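Sharing a chain and its predicted structure for anyone who wants a worked example. Both blocks are below, sequence first, tokens second.
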Amino acid sequence: MAKRGEFLPVRITMVEQRGKCVHKLGQSFIWDNWIPPKGMCGALTDSVTRPVLMCALGAPSWEDNDPEHWFISCPSKKGTVWKIKSLEKELPKRGW
């Protein structure tokens, strides 16, 4: 869980592709500060901003069976599905 004021890095990965998209299945982005990563299209940025910020600040997802992962769909009728996950467990151990 994030410490107060801490922003955990988050990985966003396409896990399902339906319809046309500029991004590719399996493509990932690392969001590690308050600014969206370069290369994300505007629709994806708009769709994932709030859940990414919640995940980065340590909030559990609404997925009953998997509170460590968030699943978000792009806004298109045939939008892609993206998995959002905190990289906290992949960070080196902190001494505090």
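Comments welcome. Helices lie at 42-56.
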